[in-house]
Design a protein that fits this description.
Elements: E1 3-8, H1 13-29, H2 31-35, H3 39-49, E2 58-64, E3 67-77, E4 80-88, H4 97-111, E5 116-122, H5 126-134, E6 138-140, E7 152-158
Parallel strand pairs: 4-5
Antiparallel strand pairs: 1-2, 2-3, 3-4, 5-7, 6-7
Length: 159
């Protein structure tokens, strides 16, 4: 396996395809949690997880040869960057692709002189949380719009 990372635009069709796959997977994972919310709660979760293309500064794809197998992005947040939409296709997990993406995001943030990376994930995504913790991310209080998501878990890593 030969993993490489490509910097692309948010609207690159391959990136759009990866995010659609992520939305499908996480939608299934959190369907029960969403069902427990009322209409206002579900709308708040949707709004919190919506990303405007204009807010994204960097989008990365991880490739195995010519095959796109994952995605991640950065959104400026104060003196830091927020990590968004980290996803690796389930058929390609366990090969280091997510770790490679996260390390490249850190490199991009350092190039931009960011103080830290912050991120939000859901409490059912234990493999993702284990990855973040193995890379030195520390749990922080839920921040910003993510307070509307009762199953949010947030992390930060100082650079």
């Amino acid at each position: 396996m030969s993993l490489t990372v490509a910097r692309v635009g948010w609207l690159d069709p391959r990136a759009v395809e990866q995010r659609a796959a992520m939305d499908e997977e996480t939608g299934a994972i959190y369907a029960g949690r969403q069902a427990d919310l009322d209409d206002v709660g579900r709308a708040a979760v949707r709004a919190a997880l919506t990303v405007s293309p204009n807010d994204i500064s960097h989008t990365l794809l991880v490739l195995d040869g010519e095959t796109v197998i994952g995605h991640a992005a950065l959104r400026p947040f104060e003196q830091s960057f927020e990590v968004k939409k980290v996803f690796v296709d389930s058929r390609h997990r366990g090969k280091g692709a997510a770790r490679r993406l996260m390390l490249e995001l850190e490199a991009v943030a350092r190039e931009a002189n960011a103080h830290s990376l912050i991120l939000q994930t859901g409490n059912l995504q234990t493999p993702a949380m284990a990855l973040y913790e193995s890379l030195g991310y520390e749990r922080i209080d839920v921040f910003g719009v993510y307070a509307a998501i009762p199953f949010s878990v947030c992390y930060e890593k100082n650079l």
